[in-house]
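Need a sequence for this fold. Nothing fancy.
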């Protein structure tokens, strides 16, 4: 089961945002992916998707925490 074009676009936008806003983290992920690729050959598509989803979940969690903190402080 593949992703729809809309899902792929959203994940691409999330990845671009991550690379723009947290370059150090993106570089670490790139290095881990490169090391994994050397050891096992080309990555299956599902690993790329799973990684992107985990990154997106991390970003969303950070945003939710920020909103809760700001709401608590009434800013």
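Here you go.
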């Amino acid at each position: 089961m593949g992703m729809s074009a809309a899902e792929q676009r959203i994940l691409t936008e999330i990845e671009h945002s991550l690379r723009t806003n947290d370059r150090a983290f993106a570089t670490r992920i790139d290095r881990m992916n490169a090391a994994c690729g050397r050891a096992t050959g080309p990555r299956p598509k599902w690993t790329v998707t799973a990684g992107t989803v985990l990154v997106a979940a991390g970003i969303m969690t950070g945003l939710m925490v920020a909103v809760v903190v700001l709401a608590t402080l009434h800013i």
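For context: The CA atoms of residues 2 and 46 lie 9 Å apart.
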